[in-house]
Amino acid sequence: EDVYRPENCRGKARKLIIGTHLLQHKKWVEYYNSPSDVPPPPSLHVKCQGKPGTGKSFVIMTSRNITRKLSKSNLAGGVCAPIGCASTLISGMTMHCLFKIPTGKDTLYK
Fold first, then answer.
1. Main-chain dihedrals φ then ψ at residue 94, nearest 5 degrees
2. Burial code of 33-49, b = ≥16 C-beta within 10 A, e = fewer?
3. Tens digits of pLDDT across the chain (110 residues)
4. Contact, 94 vs 84, CB < 8 A?
5. Strands 80-81 and 93-94, how do they pair?
6. Cβ-Cβ contacts under 8 Å for 79 (sequence gap 6 or more)
7. Residue 15: which residues within 8 A CB-CB, separation 6 or more?
8. 3-state class of 90 per DSSP?
């Protein structure tokens, strides 16, 4: 969507996270275009937490759109949230679904 773009980012923390994501993406592109003897850059995992209205969903959706545009793929990695409502807001899935954690009494005690 047009709303979730790096240009629309306000605030120093949001800009820092988006900028770090872009830099990490650049490092991986350089790694794939270099000779095979170069070690890969470290993976970047982001845990986004904060109070309501601080822009967590914006940062997640913007990072996902950056990844989709730069890699020219609709795959954006695993995005999850602890509960269903939050996962719906970020177009992701719950942690239980992503990591295939069994839920319910019947599945826990078999």
1. -75, 160
2. eeeeeeeeeeeeeeebe
3. 567 777 787 888 888 888 888 888 888 888 888 887 888 888 777 788 888 888 888 888 888 888 888 777 776 567 888 888 888 888 888 888 888 888 776 655 55
4. yes
5. parallel
6. 60, 64, 90, 91, 92, 93
7. 9
8. coil
Calpha distance 62→56 (Å, rounded): 10
Token look-up 């019947």 returns: 106
Rounded to 5°, angle at Cα 23 from 68 and 55: 65
Count CA atoms closer than 13 A to 55's CA, side-chain side: 18
Distance, CA of 97 to CA of 76 (rounded, Å): 16
SS3 category, 41? coil
For the chain, counts of helices (H) and of strands (E): 5, 2
Give ∠ CA 70-73-74 in degrees, rounded to 5.
Answer: 120
Q: What is the pTM of this model?
A: 0.70
Q: Which amino acid makes up residue 59?
A: V
